[in-house]
Design a protein that fits this description.
Layout: H1 3-49, E1 55-61, E2 64-69, E3 74-81, E4 86-93, E5 105-111, E6 117-121, E7 124-125, H2 128-140
Antiparallel strand pairs: 1-2, 2-3, 3-4, 4-5, 5-6, 6-7
Helix pairs in contact: 1-2
């Protein structure tokens, strides 16, 4: 191997190590943000249930959450894809009395300058409250949903 090839190999393998380390840090921060989202959703669902609603939050596995509102006849499923830095959310009817099913979508997970991970819709960073509103409003208030 020539000295130029050797240097290129060292640079490439060094940058691959840095990318691997960066991705590992991103995944750790993304998983922490995902678990924080679970707590935020649980809190919002509990608050919503105070007036007698019947919404339920469940964590099916480490990458999937579900919110079911039997009164509205709708469910929300959230699935994290840490490799692709996205969260997919989908809505489904629980019964045929549902007035309609809103469209789902994708939130991207991006690292902020302080190394935290936040959710984005299109290119707009969402606060915790905005994230919960985007996800839960169609399930909690299906008549007001504009999805």
């Amino acid at each position: 191997m020539s000295s130029i090839e050797e240097r290129l190999h060292q640079q490439t393998s060094g940058s691959a190590e840095v990318r691997t380390q960066d991705e590992g840090r991103f995944r750790a921060a993304a998983r922490a943000r995902w678990q924080r989202l679970a707590e935020e959703l649980k809190t919002d669902v509990a608050r919503f249930n105070a007036p007698g609603q019947k919404a339920v939050f469940t964590q099916e596995d480490e990458n999937r959450f579900r919110v079911i509102n039997s009164n509205a006849g709708l469910e929300l499923t959230l699935t994290a894809d840490f490799e692709n830095h996205t969260v997919r959310y989908d809505y489904a009817a629980l019964n045929q009395q549902s007035a309609g099913v809103p469209e789902g979508g994708i939130l991207s997970m991006r690292q902020t300058p302080d190394s935290a991970v936040e959710f984005y819709s299109a290119d707009e960073q969402l606060t915790s409250k905005e994230t919960c509103n985007v996800l839960l409003e169609p399930v909690q208030f299906p008549g007001r949903s504009c999805a």
